[in-house]
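Duplicate of #3305? Posting structure anyway:
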């Protein structure tokens, strides 16, 4: 449950918009509409088959324009607009969003600011990326995983080279150097095994998550 849709729905509601979700019981991913319903009062929770007709009715009623958009949402929208028009949303008043946090954007490496809204919060960088804590962790893990695959490959290359140097030294009768290279290769083996274990555990938990989601969808 990543809650990014929930944050968006709250922004729509706080700006005076109407909110509608599919009934969780018939949704393919019931966690999504359920997350919204847990955090706020939605205007409509309906089966997807009724949405078309309801939308048709709703758009035929003139929208009210007397609801002011909250300042924090307006400010976030100006950042997104600056990104579109100037390629960068940074401005000196990023602090208006909330406090800067000691973590960086997994997509661009830039600084992040925390935007709080009730007990939900999300992070935004000056180039316009946004994350809930859950999407941040997912993005961060993906970057970390990529780095670990690169590290694993490089460690394995070093180990292969050291082993072949040890073989050469042994053939040349230089037992001392052969043993030294062999020891260095063995040391790397420990690190390689550790990284492999982390990557494997992560792949297993991802598989489990996918299976759980599929099972939820089947039983919903
Ligand atoms: Zn970013």
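Output from current build:
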């Amino acid at each position: 449950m990543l809650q990014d849709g929930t944050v968006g729905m709250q922004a729509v509601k706080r700006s005076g918009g109407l909110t509608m979700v599919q009934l969780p019981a018939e949704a393919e991913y019931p966690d999504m509409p359920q997350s919204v319903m847990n955090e706020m009062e939605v205007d409509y929770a309906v089966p997807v088959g009724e949405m078309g007709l309801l939308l048709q009715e709703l758009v035929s009623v003139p929208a009210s324009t007397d609801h002011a958009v909250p300042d924090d949402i307006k400010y976030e929208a100006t950042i997104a607009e600056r990104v579109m028009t100037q390629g960068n949303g940074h401005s000196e008043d990023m602090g208006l969003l909330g406090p800067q946090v000691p973590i960086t954007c997994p997509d661009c490496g830039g600084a992040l600011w925390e935007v709080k809204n009730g007990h939900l919060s999300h992070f935004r960088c000056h180039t316009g990326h946004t994350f809930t804590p859950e999407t941040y962790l997912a993005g961060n893990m993906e970057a970390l995983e990529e780095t670990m695959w690169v590290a694993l490959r490089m460690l394995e290359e070093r180990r292969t080279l050291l082993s072949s140097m040890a073989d050469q030294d042994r053939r040349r009768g230089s037992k001392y150097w052969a043993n030294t290279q062999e020891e260095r290769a063995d040391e790397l083996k420990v690190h390689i095994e550790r990284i492999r274990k982390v990557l494997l555990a992560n792949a297993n938990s991802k598989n489990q998550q996918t299976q759980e989601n599929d099972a939820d969808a089947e039983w919903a």
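Confirmed duplicate; merging threads. The pocket of zinc ion is lined by residues 105, 107-108, 110, 125, 127, 129 (CB under 6 Å). Residues 4-59 form one domain.
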